[in-house]
Amino acid sequence: MINLVTTYQEKYSNFECDFHSFSQSRQPFNVSSHNKNNIVISHISPLQEGGNSAKEGSSLFLRRMFSTSSLRGVSDTSSDFWKKVKTRKTLDSNNPFSIVNSFIKNNYNNKDIKNQIDFSLINSILNPHITNFKLTQEEFDILKYLKPVRFDLSSADKTELKNLIGKYVYKDDLGRPGVYVFTNKLNGHCYVGSSISLANRLSTGYFGPVLGKRKVDLALTETKLESFFIDLYILPEDLYLQENSNKSVNDSFSKIKLKAKSLILALEQILLLEKNPELNVLKVAGSPAGIKRSPESMLPSFTKNRRSVYIYDELNKTLICESNNRRLLSEEVGIGYSNFSTRRGGDRLYLNRFKFRDEKIENEEYTTQILNKEELKSFFQNLKSQLRKDIMKNNLRNYIEKVSRPNTKKIELTNVITGEVLQFKSLTDTALYIKQYGDKFSKCTAGIVTDYSSRNMVYKKTFKFKRI
Q1: pLDDT tens across 355-378, in order?
Q2: 300 preceded by cis ω (within 30°)?
Q3: Which of 231, 232, 234 lies closest to 175, judged by CA?
Q4: Domain ranges of the chain
Q5: Neighbour order of strands in the sheet with 44-46
Q6: CA gap 310, 304 in Å, rounded
């Protein structure tokens, strides 16, 4: 006799899609089996009175019924079969999505859930798929008990909110990092997100006129922004600035951003576990939201989403760098991220010298001389510095040539049709002479003569000017 009453709650995650107990939304029922090798339903009876729930449950159960008769003669017991079924546990032990899924199931409706979230749990979730993730026990303790600031988004005055999240920043500036939680006033459903620049994320992602198709976007569109609270968890500056305070700005900026990213993702993960937000499709911080995938495709999550890049020096026909993460390489070496996509094909070269490719070029013409990140960064910096000097020299040379040019107004006039060549003492005299050729040339002025002479162009397909 199999009793399906005391089982877990139905459907906690995207990939918990197998048979469930109906104990939450349908009538619980009993199933009897009388065959060792085949599952046979001999009796289905509701455990409580009410409606057609039992019929509905039995119908779905019958559709999902399977046979183990294929094991007959292979083994005396069914242990081998179930061992094969449960082989996914090996994967789940390292899969951040499965770790989160298991934690939420085991602590559902646990009022003391916050105390169940510890340092080792957060590390086991984020370390497998966040590059350069670093978190200490001391930092975890601070983040776990960080207090939020709540704003009612129906309020017309948002001055205090704008002051807290700071100004919109650009690539080379550091914004105000933190975590935000949208909570629906009507049903309590919430969404947890994070950013190293709250002003950028909120102004472009949520407070703008156009929203996307994610679950949270649809909720915001349906009930309007005014129906939500927003809780802001601002990351304390001393957590991510202190260790880099004695270093140069250029050397520490990327490290500060990486440290801030680790901290806000850790804080976001703590809140995802604590709140189990209804509007977050995936409950692992740093995940691409809204995509339903199998557990096998999510270990580690970001490994499959990183884009490889190979950098070739066309001058020396050498492969100098290979990386499986464009974004990280961009931050560490100082190459604008957009260059990897705009120059990865064709003949467009970076700094007129370097070729970017998604795949390795199988050609004996190229040799391999891989530079480490520090050498690569120094190499590009020196090259850019030299290019700037060359540009300044060229600009200066052009300026000197321009100012040293004789400041004369004498003009040599050539009639390209007849071949006649005349000289005039001034621009005005030249213009007056041309006007005598009829209405077609009646609007000729000294300014026109100056313009056409500087551009070396033929005026009205007849006259060509040259300063002498």
Answers
A1: 888 888 888 788 999 998 889 999
A2: yes
A3: 234
A4: 2-86, 96-298, 309-402, 411-467
A5: 2-3, 29-31, 44-46
A6: 17
